[in-house]
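Sample entry (212 residues):
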Amino acid sequence: MIPVRKASKRSYIILALIIIIIIIIAIGYWLFASFLKPALPVKMNSPAFSLSDIHGKTVTEAQFDGKIRLTSFIFTRCPDICPATTANMVALQSELQKQGQFGNEVEFVSITFDPENDTPEVLQQYAERMGIDQSGWTLLRGDENKVKDLASQYNLSIVRLDDGLFAHSITSLLLIDGKQRVRQIYRMGEDMENEQILTDIKTLLKEQQRDS
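Predicted structure, serialized as tokens:
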């Protein structure tokens, strides 16, 4: 017969081992789930499009396959939000250029919803004035209704006002991965979170490297 004290001690040891095993399994599961779960969940698939760049060349979403892109909807007559957004994107452009990623792994796209005013010449002047590097930043235009329809597929609203200007969604800066999926949507304007955007871009770059 096993003494009660020894049996009790053995029970405590067994219980402790069981608890340790459970903790190890739980930690392993958490690490495994964290590795598989994307840090930036997919919000929606990015719709197909066919628009024209400032040289009149047709550009589709397929041109950006395998690349991360930051997409904005703008119009050059915008007095506040659009130029502030573009200025912030130029700052992001500079940071990505330092890393050698701009135009290679990451591209920017700005789509005007005011094609009547934003002719190729106007967009070219806008690019030069704002400091846009067109080696990695594509300016697109198309039929106004066509662009509005594209924006609506991202759940963005664009309304022409009586004075000819536009009201549009402020939270409409889109981060799209190389598989044509929207991974994050940011607020435009002066309040853009550039540091967070850079962090998210780096996250997607690591994800692409891991999956390649």
